[in-house]
C-alpha cells in the first residue's frame, strides 16, 4: 500500500459530536516531497496533523508513516516525525542550545553542544543567540530553534502547522529555505497553511481541504499564483 | 533517558525564582528546626543524665532509715529523648519527661518540654516533621505548577509531545525532577545530619539506622505521592489557573483541615476520660492512707495469708500490711490505667486509619512511630518506669517484712540495701515492637502511593496536547 511512501493516509475519517471532521481523507507523500494542505480555519488541517501524530485516533481508515502503522503503534510512528506547531513554544528558562538538547533527547538523541550549535546555525539562528535564554526570542527565532529540533531528530516526515503565521518576510523566507533544504535531504514535508504565496514557492503538490474533505489536489508547478488564488476561493465558496 | 530529561526539568525549576526560593526557604526552615530540636534534645538529655546521677547519689546517701520510708524517699526516673526526636518529637513536647517513683503511687510524668517552648514550637511548627507535613505539599504543588501546568499552558508540552518517542517519559522525568528536588533539599540534609550526629554520638545502632532509613523513605514516599498528585491535577485541569486553585484546595483540605478534623473526630468517636477522673478513681480504689476499719480488714486478710490468729505471729505486721496494700494498688493501677492507655491506643489506631482520607495523617502517624516519639513508645517508658518502681518498693517492703519489729518498733537499713537497687536505665523498644497502632496508616499510605502512581501512569499514557 505504501510503495515506499513516507506518509500514507487511506480513507481516514473521524467525527466529533456527530460531525465528520475528517471525511474519507486519502493522501500519499513520497520522500523529499513537499505537500501543502490548504484550507480555511476549521477545515480540518490541524486535526489531520493530530491524526498523523497519533494525538487522535481515527474512526476508520489507515495511517502509515514510513512503514509504521500510526494507529496501532503511534509511538513508533511518531519517532519518524518532526513536528513544528504554529507557534513554537520553547522552555523560556532554558537557552536555545539547552532547548534543542532537551527536545532532541525526548526523541532519543543525545547531542553535544557543538552539534547543537551547528544545527541551530543550519536552521538560521545567529550564533550570539545560541547561549541565550529563549524567554525574549521573537517568534521567528523560536521557529528556527523548532527547525533545529526537527533537524536534530533526523525524521522522515516533517509536519508544519501554519509555519509562516506571524513571521516577518525575512523569517518566512528563511523558513522556505529550510523547507527546501529538508526536502533536498529526502524528508517529506506536510504543511498545513493559509499562505498561498509560500505554497507556490516551496510545495511540489497542494491539496485543498474543506469541511474535512480533500476537494482538490494539484501539482504546484502546474498552476500559477493567480490561478491558485482563484481556485482556492472557488473551492471554498462552491 | 528519563534521568537526563529530569536534569533539564531540575534546571527549569532552579531558574524559576519563585519555585526555587520557596523550596530553599522551606529547606532552610526544616534544617534549622532540626538543628534547634536536636540541640534542645541533646541539652535536655545531658541535664537528665546529670540530675539522674545526682538522684542516684541522693538515693544511696539517704542514710539509715526504715526501708518503707526509703521507698517514699525514693527517686526520679528520667525519660531519654526518643531515638529520632530531632526529626519528629511527636508527642514528646506534650508529655512529661520525668516521674517520681514512690510507694503507693503511680505518678504522672512531670516537666513537659512545651512549658519552655518557643512561639514556633507552641504553634506545632518547630520541628522538621510538622514543617514537612504542613508545607511540603504547598511547595511540591508549586513545582508541579511550574514544570507541568505552565509547560502545558505555554504550549511547550505540545512541542515536547510531538518530539517525544515515548511521551510518558516526559511525565516521569517531570515527576522525578519534582520528587528529586523536594526530597534532596527538604529531607536529605536533616536525615544526613541526624546520621552524622548519631555516628559521632556513638548511638548509631542497627535500630537507629533502620529507623532513620525508614523515616527518610517515608518522607520520600510522601513527596513522591504529592508529586504525582500535583502532576495529575496539572495535566487534567482545564488550565493552569484552575490547576493551581485545585492544588491549593487539596493542600488546605489534606494538610490543614483533615489532620485537625481527624484528631477531633477520633476524640469524639473514642473519647478519653479526663486525667483527673482517672487519678481520682485510682485514689478511691487504692488509697495511700487508710482507716482503722481498713486495718481491721487487712488484719483478717493477713491472718488468712499467714495462717495465724495474732499480729504478733507475723514477723513485721506493719510492713506486711504495707506490702499487701502496695500489691493491691498494682492490680488497681493496671486495671484503671490499662483501660485508659488502651483507650488512648484505640484513639491512635482510629486516627491512623483516617490516613485513608489524607496522606498527611498517614505520614504523621508513621513518622512519630518511626521516630520513637508516639504514644506507644511513651507508654513503653511508663510501663518500664512503673516496673522499676514496683521492684524498688517490693524490695524495700520485703526487707522490712524479713525483720521482726513489734508495735512502734522500726527495722532500719542503710546504703548496703539501697545499693542493691540497680540504677534505672531505660532502653527504648526496638522498631516493630511498639508500632501496632500505626499499621492502618501504613496500609493507607501504600494505598495512596499505588493509587496516585496508577493515576499518574494512566494520565501519562493518555497524554494529549
UniProtKB/TrEMBL annotation, chain B:
Organism: Polymorphobacter multimanifer
Membrane-spanning parts: 20-39, 129-149, 176-200, 212-235, 242-262, 439-456
Family annotation (Pfam families): DUF3526 (PF12040)
Domain of life the protein comes from: Bacteria
Keywords from the named record: Membrane, Transmembrane, Transmembrane helix
GO cellular component entries: plasma membrane
Entries under InterPro entries matching the protein: DUF3526
GO MF term (any one): ABC-type transporter activity
Protein known as: ABC-2 type transport system permease protein
Amino acid at each position: 500500500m505504501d510503495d515506499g511512501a513516507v506518509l500514507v493516509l487511506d480513507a481516514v475519517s473521524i467525527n466529533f459530536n456527530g460531525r465528520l471532521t475528517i471525511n474519507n481523507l486519502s493522501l500519499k507523500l513520497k520522500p523529499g516531497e513537499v505537500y501543502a494542505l490548504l484550507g480555511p480555519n476549521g477545515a480540518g488541517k490541524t486535526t489531520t496533523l493530530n491524526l498523523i501524530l497519533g494525538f487522535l485516533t481515527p474512526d476508520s481508515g489507515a495511517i502509515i508513516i514510513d512503514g509504521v502503522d500510526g494507529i496501532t503503534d503511534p509511538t513508533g510512528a511518531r519517532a519518524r516525525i518532526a513536528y513544528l506547531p504554529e507557534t513554537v513554544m520553547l522552555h523560556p528558562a532554558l537557552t536555545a542550545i539547552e532547548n534543542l538538547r532537551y527536545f532532541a533527547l525526548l526523541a532519543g538523541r543525545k547531542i553535544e553542544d557543538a552539534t547543537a550549535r551547528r544545527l541551530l546555525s543550519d536552521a538560521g539562528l545567529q550564533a550570539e543567540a545560541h547561549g541565550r535564554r529563549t524567554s525574549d526570542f521573537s517568534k521567528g527565532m523560536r521557529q528556527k530553534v523548532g527547525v533545529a529540533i526537527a533537524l536534530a531528530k533526523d525524521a522522515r516526515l516533517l509536519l508544519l502547522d501554519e509555519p509562516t503565521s506571524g513571521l516577518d518576510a525575512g523569517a518566512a523566507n528563511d523558513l522556505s529555505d529550510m523547507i527546501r533544504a529538508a526536502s533536498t535531504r529526502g524528508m517529506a514535508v506536510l504543511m498545513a497553511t493559509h499562505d498561498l504565496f509560500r505554497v507556490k514557492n516551496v510545495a511540489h503538490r497542494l491539496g485543498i481541504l474543506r469541511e474535512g474533505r480533500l476537494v482538490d489536489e494539484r501539482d504546484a508547478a502546474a498552476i500559477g499564483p493567480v490561478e491558485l488564488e482563484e481556485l482556492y476561493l472557488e473551492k471554498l465558496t462552491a | 533517558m528519563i534521568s537526563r530529561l529530569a536534569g533539564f526539568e531540575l534546571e527549569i525549576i532552579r531558574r524559576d525564582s519563585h519555585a526555587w526560593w520557596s523550596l530553599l526557604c522551606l529547606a532552610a526552615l526544616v534544617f534549622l528546626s532540626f538543628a534547634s530540636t536536636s540541640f534542645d534534645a541533646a541539652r535536655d538529655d545531658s541535664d537528665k543524665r546529670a540530675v539522674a546521677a545526682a538522684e542516684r547519689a541522693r538515693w544511696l546517701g539517704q542514710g539509715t532509715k526504715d526501708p518503707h520510708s526509703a521507698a517514699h524517699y525514693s527517686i526520679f526516673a528520667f525519660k531519654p529523648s526518643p531515638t529520632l526526636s530531632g526529626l519528629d518529637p511527636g508527642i514528646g513536647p506534650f508529655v512529661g519527661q520525668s516521674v517520681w517513683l514512690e510507694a503507693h503511687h503511680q505518678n504522672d510524668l512531670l516537666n513537659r518540654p512545651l512549658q519552655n517552648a518557643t512561639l514556633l514550637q507552641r504553634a506545632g511548627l518547630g520541628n522538621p516533621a510538622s514543617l514537612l507535613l504542613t508545607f511540603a505539599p504547598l511547595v511540591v504543588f508549586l513545582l508541579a505548577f511550574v514544570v507541568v501546568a505552565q509547560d502545558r499552558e505555554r504550549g511547550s508540552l505540545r512541542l515536547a509531545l510531538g518530539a517525544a518517542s515515548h511521551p510518558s517519559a516526559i511525565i516521569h522525568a517531570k515527576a522525578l525532577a519534582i520528587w528529586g528536588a523536594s526530597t534532596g533539599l527538604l529531607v536529605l540534609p536533616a536525615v544526613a545530619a541526624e546520621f552524622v550526629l548519631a555516628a559521632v554520638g556513638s548511638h548509631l545502632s542497627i535500630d537507629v539506622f533502620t529507623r532513620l532509613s525508614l523515616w527518610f523513605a517515608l518522607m520520600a514516599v510522601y513527596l513522591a505521592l504529592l508529586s504525582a498528585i500535583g502532576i495529575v491535577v496539572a495535566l487534567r485541569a482545564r488550565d493552569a489557573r484552575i490547576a493551581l486553585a485545585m492544588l491549593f484546595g487539596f493542600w488546605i483540605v489534606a494538610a490543614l483541615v483533615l489532620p485537625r478534623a481527624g484528631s477531633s473526630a477520633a476524640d469524639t468517636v473514642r473519647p478519653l476520660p479526663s486525667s483527673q477522673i482517672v487519678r481520682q478513681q485510682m485514689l478511691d480504689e487504692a488509697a495511700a492512707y487508710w482507716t482503722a476499719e481498713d486495718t481491721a480488714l487487712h488484719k483478717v486478710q493477713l491472718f488468712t495469708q499467714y495462717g495465724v490468729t495474732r499480729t504478733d505471729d507475723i514477723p513485721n505486721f506493719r510492713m506486711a500490711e504495707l506490702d499487701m496494700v502496695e500489691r493491691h494498688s498494682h492490680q488497681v493501677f493496671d486495671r484503671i490505667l490499662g483501660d485508659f492507655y488502651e483507650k488512648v491506643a484505640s484513639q491512635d489506631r482510629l486516627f491512623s486509619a483516617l490516613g485513608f482520607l489524607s496522606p498527611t495523617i498517614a505520614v504523621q502517624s508513621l513518622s512519630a512511630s518511626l521516630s520513637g516519639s508516639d504514644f506507644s513508645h511513651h507508654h513503653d517508658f511508663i510501663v518500664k518506669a512503673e516496673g522499676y518502681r514496683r521492684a524498688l518498693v517490693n524490695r524495700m517492703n520485703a526487707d522490712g517484712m524479713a525483720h521482726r519489729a513489734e508495735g512502734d518498733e522500726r527495722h532500719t537499713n542503710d546504703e548496703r540495701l539501697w545499693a542493691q537497687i540497680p540504677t534505672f536505665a531505660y532502653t527504648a523498644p526496638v522498631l516493630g515492637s511498639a508500632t501496632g497502632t500505626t499499621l492502618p496508616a501504613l496500609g493507607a499510605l501504600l494505598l495512596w502511593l499505588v493509587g496516585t502512581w496508577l493515576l499518574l501512569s494512566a494520565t501519562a499514557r493518555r497524554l494529549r496536547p
